[in-house]
Amino acid sequence: MKNFSTVGPRLARTRAWTGLAAALALGSITLLAASAHAAPAACSFRADAPDQHKVVKGDTLWDIAGRFLDQPWCWPTVWGMNREEIANPHWIYPGQIIWFDRAAGRLRLGQPLAVSTDDGSGVVSQRLQPQARVLGVGQDAISSIPAHVIEPFLTQPLIIENDELTGAPRIVATPDNHVFIGKDDKAYVRGTLNGGPTFQAFRPGKPLKDPQTGQVIAYEAFYLGTLSLQAEAPPGSDVHTFIVQNAKEEMGKGDQLRPLPPMPMQNFVPHAPAQPVAARVLAIYGGVSHAGQNQVVSINRGQLDGLDIGAVLQLYHTGRTVNDETAPKSWLGLRTQQVKLPDEKVGNLFIFRVFKHVSYGLIMQVSAPVEVGDYAKSPE
């Protein structure tokens, strides 16, 4: 990995940037606070990093970070961001400019600012200047990773942990004894409603076993659809009436309900976990044996292990154990030595939904198929 250097042909740019920073510091324009120290060696800028990038619709924080950095998860480091800013990065919008401050080894945010100049020839030109970072929340703010890829996973499918199934309301009857019901059909539900007017219907699915302990730590439930409460149970009854709002799969008697969870914040900055994490891939969504770019996997670590949304882990294949056929033979003429090959990095995992003991992650920058049992570790 090549570290950033300001010698040689870049010296002129360094002086120019130093002068610009000094001039702006004396003016009314405020730039992002930047540390006087360069980024850690692990967070080096790319050798071909551009001087600037204009943000366009469709960009993601991950994509932009990858233009400047060898490791996109180093984004907070080169911005000097604190934990609050990492969790709420709604401040980059299409049309703004990301500037590479080579003198400080930092990225800065600007916005196109038309400044008319006349060189005396009658030709008026315009230039861009860095401006203050504007904090705010808006729908146009760019997302961390492709929103359309993870959107279905933000509220479903469901991870059911511990005893969350206990006492969940369940469908006990359907109109005219239909085996299955769909959109706009009624469903009669029995159980205590501890939530709002909208519920998810689900069917318990396969258990998720920890690859290390073999114990079941959660269940991945099949998401069936959503239902809205039409009428609560009348006096003397414990049966509620629901209407199916939408049905992804057919639902029927025995299927269970739970309140629709709030949409979790999805626009977190890619960052390394706050504490070391060593996880294993539990399952690949869809029941397949291998996963590639932009596919979703679950891992056996969650909130209680220090993970949060936006954390980035590195994925590794476990090194195989092989016979060393080059080792000297024993007195029996056998070669019995075995060696373990190094673990091989195959990609990055962006964590976008976190439960207590389990998390969903989106595979990024993969170089080889990811398998159940692969390691997911804090970036080195």
Automatic annotation (TrEMBL):
Check the record and name the Gene3D superfamilies matching this protein.
LysM domain
- The residues covered by the LysM domain are 51-100
Per the UniProt entry, the signal peptide is 1-38
Please give the InterPro entries that the UniProt record associates with this protein.
Bact_Kbp, LysM, LysM_dom_sf
Name the keywords, alphabetized.
Signal
**By its UniProt entry, which SUPFAM superfamilies does this protein fall under?**
LysM domain (SSF54106)
**Cited PANTHER family:** PHAGE-LIKE ELEMENT PBSX PROTEIN XKDP, POTASSIUM BINDING PROTEIN KBP
The name under which this protein is listed is LysM peptidoglycan-binding domain-containing protein
